[in-house]
Design brief:
The chain is of the alpha/beta class and about 500 residues long. Helices cover about 40% and strands about 10% of the residues. It has helices at about 5, 10-20, 25-45, 50-65, 110-115, 160-165, 185-190, 225-235, 250-255, 275-290, 310-325, 340-355, 355-370, 375-395, 420-425, 430-435, 465-480, and strands at about 45-50, 80, 120-125, 170-175, 190-195, 215-220, 265, 295-300, 400-405, 440-450, 455-460. It is globular. The protein binds glutamine.
């Protein structure tokens, strides 16, 4: 089979090719690495590779196929793992100098599940340092380039995960989403990315950024791949105290049903000024498709949404300042070469090990938590978070799925928002709310702008309502062909 045709397949199609013995899992893995050799220099999607592990896993898959044994859904499918998720025996750097030489002594729960399901992990995908960013420009290592236009950012913070799928360097990927880090890069790179309900997927072994917002989720080229990978990694985990002890359900059985029973709400505030014309038009067209499919659509207003960025940057930085306190040169990774005493060792290690954005967040968070400002900032932010949630709860009594652009613009030029952290923070205006309220949300391809860059549509549903959300996403995908387009590389 032609290499590129093989790699353009969705995971579902790859599985079929494996089961029909058109290709072996080892051949599929090797074809993936060949592609990586061809394009990775231009893309920069990976921090490191896990070839031995991938090939060993693929061999296991081939043995099972030869023996006619039952195969887990994602077995043999090449996957990119965000480099803030631990994989035993391999480096986990979080794209930070402070963890540059850190080797994971254990598997994250999702990595353990990938291992049990015989998913070949191709490598550790690049990200913004400690997942802080929207463009992947905050990596301490390489910049990641958007496969659709190498001068543009892939989105962040899971930019490497998304770019690898879009550049055919993997079929699927895992990322983490604290304020949009799965959905935004999915939208910029023309693929699908899904953040499940907070607590659905274990965070054990994910390097913590903001623990009350972080959630691991899948990237894929079609909604079915997203469903399969989600079902592979979801479920209760006693090692994560915030993990939900509830059945995940069997979405794969029903997500192809129609959407006639669903009520959609278009978020007025996210279609207002500042939204690029092409993006707005794409969402308006999408809404017409849902109407054509027999769903009900109306406009809804969430007046408190405008506070979500402010609330997020207090809560996320406060939690980050606490979570990142552990990187002190004693227990993990980098330690400064010369320090005269313990205090100097701490300060020099952190000064030399963390990048600018991470330092900015630690300072902001420490400030918001300090005794004189706690009530004015942190407490206020928590109160507003609650009110935003109530705003959404009210709307979810009227509609099942909320619709908006994932981002007001398509991918921007590398370097264009670096000097202005606030402009960068505003990139996440559409995505942050889902993390603040813990709700599931997905970004799916919804068109291209005049310059040929992908547009993403975001769908959000009430907590635990993954089924109608993914059903809505699937029905739109079936009616359109945006997800079958590829970047010319
Ligand atoms: N862009 C947001 C931030 O910089 C979200 C990051 C994320 O979801 N990990 O914090």
């Amino acid at each position: 089979m032609d290499q590129k045709e093989l790699l353009k397949k969705t995971a579902v199609e790859m599985r079929k090719a494996l089961l029909e013995k058109q290709v072996s899992a080892v051949e599929l893995t090797e074809a993936t690495y060949k592609r990586v050799n061809e394009v990775e220099e231009k893309i920069g999607a990976f921090n490191s590779f896990t070839k031995e592990y991938a090939l060993e896993t693929a061999k296991e898959v081939d043995k099972k196929i030869a023996a006619g044994e039952e195969l887990p859904k994602m077995a043999g499918i090449p996957l990119a793992l965000k480099d803030n998720i631990n994989l035993k025996g391999y480096k986990t750097t979080a794209s930070s100098k402070i963890l540059e030489n850190f080797t994971s002594p254990y598997d994250a729960t999702v990595s353990k599940k990938l291992r049990e399901n015989l998913v070949p992990v191709i490598g550790k995908a690049n990200l913004d340092e400690f997942a802080m960013g929207s463009s992947n420009e905050n990596s301490a290592f390489n910049k990641v380039h958007n496969p659709y236009n190498l001068n543009k950012v892939p989105g962040g913070s899971s930019g490497g995960s998304a770019a690898s799928v879009a550049a055919l360097e993997s079929a699927v990927a895992l990322g983490s989403d604290t304020g949009g880090s799965i959905r935004l890069p999915a939208s910029f790179c023309g693929i699908s990315g899904f953040k499940p309900t907070y607590g659905r997927v274990s965070r054990y072994g994910l390097i913590a950024f903001a623990s009350s917002l972080d959630q691991i989720g899948p990237f894929g080229r079609c909604v079915e791949d997203i469903v399969d990978l989600y079902e592979t990694i979801a479920g209760y985990d006693e090692k994560d105290s915030t993990s939900l002890n509830m059945p995940v359900g069997n979405i794969s059985k029903t997500f192809k049903n129609d959407v006639k029973d669903l009520k959609f709400g278009v978020i007025k505030e996210l279609m207002a000024e500042g939204v690029n014309d092409d993006v707005k038009k794409a969402i308006e067209d999408a809404v017409k498709i849902y109407e054509k499919l027999g769903a009900t659509v109306k406009e809804v207003s969430l007046p408190l949404l405008k506070h979500s960025i402010g609330v997020y940057y207090i809560i996320a930085t406060a939690e980050a300042s606490s979570n990142l306190a552990r990187f002190d040169g004693v227990k993990y990774g980098y330690r400064t070469a010369d320090a005269k005493n313990l205090m100097e060792m701490y300060t020099k290690t952190r000064k030399e090990g963390f990048g600018d954005e991470v330092k900015r967040r630690i300072m902001l968070g420490t400030y918001a938590l300090s005794s004189g400002y706690y009530d004015a900032y942190y407490k206020k932010a928590q109160q507003l978070r609650r009110l935003i949630k109530e705003d959404f709860d009210r709307i979810f009594k009227e509609v099942d799925v909320l619709v908006s652009p994932t981002c007001p613009t398509t991918a921007f030029d590398i370097g264009s928002r670096n000097e202005d952290p606030l402009a960068m923070y505003l990139t996440d205006i559409g995505t942050i709310c889902a993390n603040l309220i813990g709700a599931p949300a997905i970004s799916i391809p919804a068109g291209f702008d005049k310059g040929g860059m992908p547009i993403g549509m975001q769908l959000i549903s009430q907590i635990l309502q993954e089924e109608p959300l993914l059903r809505a996403a699937y029905n739109f995908e079936r009616e359109t062909d945006f997800n079958t387009k590829f970047a010319e590389l």
